[in-house]
């Protein structure tokens, strides 16, 4: 019988390993995000399937960056059709369509979350971004990318300006350890990696006197008032804030 201690211990080890393995990449990703803030530009975030949970974590979230533009298409979300969401992220051409809503530029950064990193949608997002001079932070698993079927001309590891490796094993499941079938880790690790980047952005931004635009919880005293100026600034360029 599995115990909570077994699961929590394995997750804690995964997160510790991830932080250690990505120390340099986290700093490089924070460099890119700080550049966005200095330029008063945008961080575009994208994913498909359950990687959209990571996109939601980046957007309009207490403690999160306000200068975030989430890239989204309803057909990519399993809640709108599970099987069709898988088919959609394998469809070539969708990335250009989604980016046409608002094209990123050289001062912006694109963050793509995809554990397998092999389907056309995440890979083509990177290719389209590079055409526009936009740097890419790829949040993926090198092991999963290596094991995944080749469905694109490239993969997320090859296309990332910076690659954050979740260390998730092929299949994503983590339990039982000798033959994993359940307890997937990618959602937990993706959120952790993004928070490590945000922590560096905050500390280093504060050290140089940079005003890092961060949301406050609307359920604490003064939260709505603190967010009002951010909403006024970003709603004009981020339609999903309206």
Automatic annotation (TrEMBL):
Domain SIS: from-to ranges: 33-207
User: Could you tell me the Gene Ontology terms of the biological process aspect for this record?
Assistant: carbohydrate derivative metabolic process
One MF term from GO for this chain? carbohydrate derivative binding
A Pfam family the protein falls into: SIS_2
Q: Which Gene3D superfamilies match?
A: Glucose-6-phosphate isomerase like protein, domain 1
Q: Which InterPro entries match?
A: RpiR-like_SIS, SIS_dom, SIS_dom_sf, SIS_GmhA/DiaA_subfam
Which PANTHER family does the annotation name? PHOSPHOHEPTOSE ISOMERASE, SEDOHEPTULOSE 7-PHOSPHATE ISOMERASE / DNAA INITIATOR-ASSOCIATING FACTOR FOR REPLICATION INITIATION
**Listed name of the protein:** SIS domain-containing protein
Q: Which organism is it from?
A: Amycolatopsis iheyensis
